Amino acid sequence: MVTDAYAVRTGIGPRPLAGGRVPRPVIEVIERDDGLINGAPADHYLAEPAEWQPHDHRALRLCRGHVLDIGCGAGRVAIELQRRGVAVTGLDTSPGAVAVARRRGLRDTVVTTVDEYARATARYDTFLLLGNNLGLIEGADRAPVLLAALASLANPGARIVAQGTDPYGTTDPVHLGYHERNRSRGRLGGQLRLRLRYRLLATDWFDYLVCSPAELEPLLAGTRWRLKSIDDKDHPYYLAVMELTG
């Protein structure tokens, strides 16, 4: 999907065509476990800084030291940090997305999971979870595992800068019903169960957490991370900064 989006944006490489002639929009299909289907243009994975949301720009100002961009995708954020002279590594589980990031100029990349990479000797001062990637916390069961992996990769005083979305401002009955369904099953209201589809491809089902700042702080209990600040100037989107203790 990212490869096709790159080809459509740049004209480099084979492009999906409608009727064999007209470039076809590259749409990421998001399927939720209650049957809801949404779609979004995949081009946003390639957005240049002029196309970003304001909170993305503020997030970059919070970076310090050596940065690990988790879920870097096509390198949207990591490439801009590199342009600014910041030492940055892009991590993603998708070989295709990382190949596009490298084609776009990102020098330092890793294709693996955070859990696997936690065994590496590399150490970082900032962990970036942008593009709503606070969702990679998944839920109460997964949070301590992911946060322990990041702590093992962290230099003293490291921070996590994560972008999340407060899901509870909606009046849409489809989403309100999903929140209630989740709570009745002992899950957080915005704890999504998703899979992504593109043409003939589909991911496995996975959890992805959309939570309020108030729900985030208890997820840090018992870990080495403490919530330092919340920037919700772009509500319902927010930036959460968590700092390593001990």
Describe this structure in words.
It is built from 8 helices and 14 strands. With 246 residues, it is of the alpha/beta class. It has one domain: Rossmann fold (3-Layer(aba) Sandwich). The strands form 3 sheets. It has a 7-stranded mixed beta sheet, with helices on both faces. Strands 3, 4, 10, 11 and 12 form a 5-stranded antiparallel beta sheet that branches. It is globular.
Task: Give the CATH topology.
Answer: Rossmann fold
Top-tier CATH class: Alpha Beta
Detail the poorly predicted runs: none
Structurally, how many domains make up the residues?
Answer: 1
Biggest sheet, in brief?
7 strands, mixed
Specify the helix fraction band: 25-40%
Which of globular, elongated, flat, extended, rod-shaped describes the shape?
A: globular
Supply the number of helical segments. 8
Number of strands: 14
CATH homologous superfamily name?
Vaccinia Virus protein VP39
**CATH architecture field:** 3-Layer(aba) Sandwich
Distance between the termini: 41 Å
What strand order characterises the main sheet?
7-6-5-8-9-14-13
Mean pLDDT: 96
What does the oligomeric state look like here?
single chain
Class inferred from helices and paired strands: alpha/beta
Please compute the radius of gyration using only Cα atoms. Answer: 18 Å
**String of helices and strands:** HEEEEHEHEHEHEHEHEEEHEE
Query: Strand share of the residues?
Result: 25-35%
List the helices and strands and how they pair.
Layout lengths: L1 H9 L6 E2 L3 E2 L3 E6 L4 E5 L12 H7 L6 E4 L5 H8 L4 E5 L2 H9 L5 E3 L2 H4 L6 E6 L13 H10 L1 E12 L7 H12 L6 E8 L2 E2 L3 E4 L3 H7 L5 E7 L5 E8 L2
